[in-house]
């Protein structure tokens, strides 16, 4: 079967691999589409995850059950696989159904770190790591995984504000990549005003989509993160989806009192001089919080399916516009446009 | 009546002031004891809060109802006043019973910022800002306010970890001041192991008390905050109670995966070079969080009364050992020992 693999210190290649044989409790899934995001580009660039030898790329997948193999699934059902697997034996995080809370040494991540991903014609997936998807959502099913990332981050952010009356007036997303853009319609349902900050020109399709979703675009080349309150308004929620390291501290200054910043991006090293005292005071005196969040658990995938079902059709169209055939996987990996994906199924 | 006031740009002085007349809904309280903490010293030093003209000092008080003035209180009842008041008209935060969530421009703080405190023979307190205290707790009643600070911080920290299984193995308190020390017995009830980090010698009474409570002392001159995991163990909770600005970022590195740092101290300006990328990654990939917390609401004061009731008698003794008569208020303000207080009542 066809598969896109990344070899250590190499470029991704389309290769022939044996079709996997599902073991006990595993479902054979025919992969239909695999989304591409910033993490894939980091992995390909050698800046994140990877594995010894060759690894199949791709972690945002939707497929169809090819062989239920005695599990509760049925042939032909659309399914989405989750990303984390135990790194050998089961551990407490997987036993609890909280693989997303496992430290890095207690998990592998399919297509990202230490395990084969989904950019292949077939994969064998333990049934507990598969979600059913309504048929109508299948064409956009590769958006479930990125939406699950937002679902978890929002759950953590909301939980941190639960002890008091949190005013949800304004939310700001840092980043116009696919995760940032996909977070906008979710926040637009939950906040009075939604803002989106990036480094793109105003006629860029990503910026046009952000505006179509209802977000106010902030060009960070003119208005840096910590100047957003003065230029627009202080934010009750900031979602960091770029992995630009200074954003963690700058976000604190973009927050309204009692606001929370959720960090999703994974930055490289970045040393900088910071006025720590002022940031620290803003956190304390303003009851602000900064929450890191990585990956997502089964419940977040389930919420993501609900969210996908409630996205406006025009937004789904924009996110599924750039789907490339498998042989053009390099275009999907290279092209920086709203969202790209690879089509694998027949 | 006697009162200790701070004049703008002056030193605190014992002066004669007219006894307050309680207005409608206000209770006349005879103050018995007022605790002193780092915030008072910051205020006296001109580094925090203050007011135009003269301000009565003191925000950690316990007193006795002298005149219920038609309220539900009874003469002779021990009471503790809360600290925040509306800065004129009532606002939404006070209406909701969440004055601790008010931004600084929507509140004043008795004895700290913009309103007279409690270091006086009598104060008039609106009944809604008074808590009843069991008679047996009255001698240590000035500990309710600092315990309420910990109660709120712990509530926020716990809420932020509520969506998943938070392992509460180890907690670290940064600071051997009165707030840090008072937090130790509370955490000792809730965590397997408790650590306390400071800059005192091992034979200092504060360090001896920390050990008596059951905490492992960490000398920050030998083991900086971010080296605590290597020297001891990673921490599931860090409580920052010094106001040393670099602690906010250093705390992130002291945390175990899924851990949370609660910041309580209010630092001055402090510019420093920081490896932001690594801290950001630790937050994201480790699902860590940093939570700022200031002041406390009525529910936190109520919890603090319960906690005070459950403190070991030897701990209460240590915290009430250094109570000075009012005329020696300067010793209470100056002396850096476990906890000082001023005795005002007859």
From TrEMBL, chains A, B:
Keywords: Metal-binding, Oxidoreductase, Zinc
An annotated GO BP: small molecule metabolic process
CDD domains in alphabetical order: glucose_DH
Cofactor names: Zn(2+)
Glucose dehydrogenase C-terminal domain sequence ranges: 139-344
Protein's recorded name: Threonine dehydrogenase
Domain Alcohol dehydrogenase-like N-terminal, chain residue ranges per copy: 23-135
InterPro entries: ADH-like_N, Glu_dehyd_C, GroES-like_sf, NAD(P)-bd_dom_sf
Region (Disordered): 1-25
Pfam families: ADH_N (PF08240), Glu_dehyd_C (PF16912)
Molecular function GO labels: adenyl nucleotide binding; anion binding; metal ion binding; oxidoreductase activity, acting on the CH-OH group of donors, NAD or NADP as acceptor
Highest taxon above the source species: Archaea
């Amino acid at each position: 079967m066809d598969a896109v693999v990344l070899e250590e210190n190499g470029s991704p290649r389309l290769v022939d691999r044996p079709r996997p044989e599902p073991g006990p409790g595993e479902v054979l899934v025919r992969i239909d589409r695999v989304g591409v995001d910033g993490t894939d580009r980091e992995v390909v660039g050698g800046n994140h995850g990877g594995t010894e030898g060759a690894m199949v790329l791709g972690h945002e997948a939707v497929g169809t059950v090819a062989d239920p193999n005695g599990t509760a699934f049925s042939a032909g059902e659309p399914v989405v696989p989750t990303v984390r697997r135990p790194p050998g034996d089961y551990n407490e995080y997987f036993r609890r159904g909280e693989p997303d809370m496992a430290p890095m040494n207690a998990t592998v991540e399919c297509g990202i770190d230490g395990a084969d991903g989904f950019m292949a014609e077939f994969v064998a997936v333990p049934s507990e790591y598969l979600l059913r998807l309504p048929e109508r959502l299948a064409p956009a099913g590769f958006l479930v995984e990125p939406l699950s990332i937002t679902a978890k981050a929002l759950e953590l952010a909301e939980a941190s504000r639960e002890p008091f009356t949190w005013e949800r007036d304004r939310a700001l997303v840092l980043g116009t990549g696919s995760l940032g853009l996909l977070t906008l319609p979710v926040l637009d349902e939950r906040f009075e005003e939604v803002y989106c900050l990036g480094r793109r020109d105003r006629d860029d399709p990503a910026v046009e989509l952000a505006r179509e979703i209802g977000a106010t675009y902030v060009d960070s080349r003119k208005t840096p993160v910590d100047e957003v309150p003065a230029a627009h308004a202080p934010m009750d929620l900031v979602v960091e989806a770029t992995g630009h390291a200074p954003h963690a501290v700058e976000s604190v200054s973009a927050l309204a009192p009692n606001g929370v910043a959720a960090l999703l991006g994974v930055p490289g090293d970045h040393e900088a001089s910071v006025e720590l005292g002022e940031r620290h005071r803003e956190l304390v005196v303003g009851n602000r919080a900064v929450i890191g969040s990585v990956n997502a658990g089964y419940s977040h995938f389930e919420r993501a399916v609900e969210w996908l079902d409630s996205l406006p059709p025009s937004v789904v169209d924009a996110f599924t516009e750039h789907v490339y055939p498998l042989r053009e996987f390099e275009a999907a990996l290279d092209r920086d446009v709203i969202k790209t994906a690879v089509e694998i199924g027949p």
